Amino acid sequence: MPDAIEIPESLSRRGFLQATGFGLLSLGVPVAWSGKSQELPAGQMGRVAEPTLDVFRTPSFGAARVRTLVRDDLLSLDAAVVGDRLPEHNRVWYEIDRVGFAHSSGIQPVRNEPAAPLSAIPWTGILVEVCTPFVDAYSEPDSGSERQYRYYYETTHWVLGVVRNEQGREWYRIDDDKFDREYYARAKHFRPIPLAELTPMSPDVPAKEKRIEVSMSRQWVQCYEGADLVFSTRVSTGQHTADGKFATPKGSFSTFRKRASRHMAVGNLATGYDLPGVPWVAYITNDGISFHGTYWHNDFGAPRSHGCVNLTPQAAKWVYRWTQPVVPLYEREMWSESGTQVLIKI
Prior knowledge:
The chain is mainly beta and 346 residues long. It contains two helices and 25 strands. The protein has helices at 13-20, 313-322, and strands at residues 37-39, 45-48, 52-56, 65-70, 74-82, 92-96, 100-103, 107-110, 126-130, 134-138, 147-152, 156-164, 170-176, 181-186, 190-192, 210-215, 220-225, 228-234, 251-254, 257-266, 273-283, 290-293, 309-311, 333-335, 341-345. The strands form six sheets. Strands 1, 2, 5, 6, 7 and 8 form a six-stranded antiparallel β-sheet that branches. Strands 14-13-12-9-15 form a five-stranded antiparallel β-sheet, with no helix packed on it. A hairpin with a 6-residue loop joins strand 20 and strand 21 (273-283). The longest helix is centred in the last third of the chain and has 10 residues, at 313-322.
């Protein structure tokens, strides 16, 4: 486990709880453990997020390999364990089904908690979050139609309607904001996001008192209210490439544009990406650099992005709710001439 950052005396109890309340499973928070192993909650699952994932007899890449898993295999996560010294930025391993250990970087922590489908959808649409490991989206409300995408746990989507097919099963009609199309997915896999999870955080703090500092050398984000550190989490910034193509820009910015869900797609699958439902996006540049939730890796603490600041979905939601501008309920996005100050440094 990476060393914990020093929590300053100015960090309030509320702030400390905010700083330590996210990402234990995903290493999103710099909190030292009291021991070498921590049991995980009952029902905690993991989804393999990499093309393949090896399970070892002990929490070390030098140990004997027990089995090899493939993308979207579902696992029972029994415990989080501190492994050997490598890789230094992420020493967390998961005990898998009591038979071996897999490094946490390639496992998305998930739960399987189906929701009761809504019988009607407001004309404005409603924001939902995937509450099961994944669900497939189709061209029609029928699993026999063409599959379009697989939506993953904690991705967010706008539902425009609900239909019941011939088998009496509820399907949500989902808007694709990138390609201006609509898809259908079984409604039980989505939970409507309640108002309590969309309201601004610390609304009494003047906007000019809030700021975000990003350290690329340490791969940290720290959020301040005046002199008080109120939230801190590990992140993944832009990858290091010879031409600097995927670098995260240094300097002073602001969160001038925000949206709770975005289908991000660039190029082809060989050199680009196609990621529906990226949650809790706060843009800081006109060419798309943003803070956002990440479901395709769990390796925070190392540069891995195409320039954006990757956070766990929970941490990204915190940043989204805490920053300016405030996105009105049922609105897809909000632009502002001035948002929350962001300082990105080496």
